[in-house]
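Quick one: structure tokens for this chain, please?
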Amino acid sequence: MATKHEQILQYIDGLPIGEKISVRQIAKAMNVSEGTAYRAIKEAENKGYVSTIERVGTIRIERKKKENIEKLTFAEVVNIVDGQVLGGRTGLHKTLNKFVIGAMKLEAMMRYTDAGSLLIVGNRTQAHELALKAGAAVLITGGFDTDDQVKKLADQLELPIISSSYDTFTVATMINRAIYDQLIKKEIILVEDILTPIQETYYLKTTDKLSTWHEYNEQTGHSRYPVVDQNMKIQGIVTSKDVLGQDPNTSIDKIMTKQPMTVTGKTSVASTAHMMVWEGIEVLPVADDSNRLEGIISRQDVLKALQMNQRQPQVGETLDDIVTNQMTLLQGKPKGEDVFTLEVTPQMTNHLGTISYGVFTTIVSEAANRVLRSYKKGDLVVESMSIYFIKPVQMETTIEIVPRILEVGRKFGKVDVEVFNDGLLVGKAMMTCQLIDR
């Protein structure tokens, strides 16, 4: 049976898109305290199907699919630009397909403005009206207002008209940055994207006998199963090691491994991979916020996802991508010695104009990864990194990175990395990692 918190979330999820929500309304409808209602609304906001806007309130918005995550709702735009809604509040749940900067003549502006777009423009009332009639929302920059008849039109058409105190360039940059951040998030694979859902998961109850484990083992060929209580909360996990030499009539709760490691749907697959390798775990139960079983994730699932991700085109480029893409192999070096070069760009520096500590760790990690891959094909999980020293390196200088393998085994690698600038040693580090066969 679902908890009260889950019932409230289901109730919110079932509300019509665009409906306004309040703590008092939810508390009254679900017969709970306002504190309980508030916590549920906040979680709904985190899950992406509710948005809270200052001076407007909380509204139900369309839940985004993974492939559509880069599309912003007008409610999100209001929060991004610290905006004020002048009209068309009922359309805040809608998503925008593109934004148009209205820095041209009216006729040219309307040529680019169509349904689902957002026109960013200053104090041009005629442009506001024409954009709304074309099916577009309007964002007025410079903190300007608009005519009452335009506000009424926005209400009738359910298209938001928003005012922001920022200038046009700043507003466009802020929205662009938000879309870019969404693209980067889209590339990060989470456990919820690849888990085996509970409907397809074999699990045991604390009241089951060991004979049930044997039945499941014969049916599936698997040997690891999560154990739950009557409320579906995770209590343990049973593996072949636990059942060895035990009586088939033994109760599962007597032999299970209690308090197993779990992950949530929002845990990244990369983090899960590290946990599995570090702890030597083959299967992890996936739990919700109340520790109720949502499914399982196996080491095979994780490896497949990581390998697929390496073959995907990168849409949103992170700083790590910029650094690693600019590292090139220096030609003409003795055989068996890999040397990489990299130009330190302004993006890679700290406030003093020298190479940042974070960029240095990325350089060390990437150099070690590349040299280890030349010895052993497979996936790597960083176990530890020790940076012995790093000296200031100015921007627009070219550095040489020299990784040397100290030790490499079937499942373990250790690499020493030295960084030079004009022949002088400016950084030294050592990285150890776990190696996983594909």
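The longest helix spans residues 168-187.
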